[in-house]
Please model this.
Amino acid sequence: MNNQAPPASSEAIYNIGAVARMTGIPVTTLHAWERRYGFPQPSGRTAGGHRLYSEKDVTLLRSVKAQINQGLSARLAVTAVQKMDRTGRLPAEHPVESPHAVNLVSPSPARYRYAQLAEALFQHDLGRADQLMAEMLAFSSPEQITLNVIAPVLAELGEAWSHGRLTVSEEHLASNYLRQRLLIWLVSGPPPRETDPIVLACAPGEWHEGSLLMLAVLLRRQGWPVVYLGQNVPFADLAVFVGQVQAQALVLVGMLEETARALADWPQWIKQSAGRPLVAFAGRAFVLQPELKEQVPGIYLGDTIQEGLAKLEELLR
Model:
């Protein structure tokens, strides 16, 4: 099956407001990306000098947003998408609402609040952050907030820290605030289905758990029994645990090249019987270096959290 995107029109027809509505990326963010990364570059301008964008620009922006939802910083997401575009490996677009998405990414006012939430956390204003969360929960589900707000805010936090705009303490304060909300939603989902659990764990030495935790929340909110183990789980301990809980599936994440390569060792520790547990993997490293996928046994879940959720549900059903 060909997963590459079909050629998109380069005709400049959309103003920046239309692009913001089509992609869910605020106008202020589009301007900031253009200043910082030279992306997106308008495909044309009106007689009055206003920016115009093409269908291809919209496709690239949606791909960048998908990479950010997976946990990449904006800078790395732009770099990855531009490289895929140059080499003809840009994946085909998925519709905003798919049968697998279960209304997780349907248009919601919440996605326009992520810049406000990020600003509140940057300023250590947890009271304001609580207020914004309460307002968003009034008209959006935890699933929508997870994908449309928390995912891009975590990406912004990582980028700000990497550029020295946040100290380690400030980044930890903000990321732990979001982590606490995700953990609350993880344990407050609907009654789980009567089936064996799905275990989620980071690779040995992997401390970046944001994307894995968000996937755990989405699975749990869809009624799947989830056991979330989090950061830096040694394979020896994991193998014993998976057997004890009789897991039907194991999801492993490696965000860095080193930890992604470490995932190749899981068959030495975790034994399968009649295909159980199903072992799947994902992570930023596999997006930036697709050749790593061939080195890890198991099922690759895809480049975004949405793809991972859809793939897992398809396999488990």
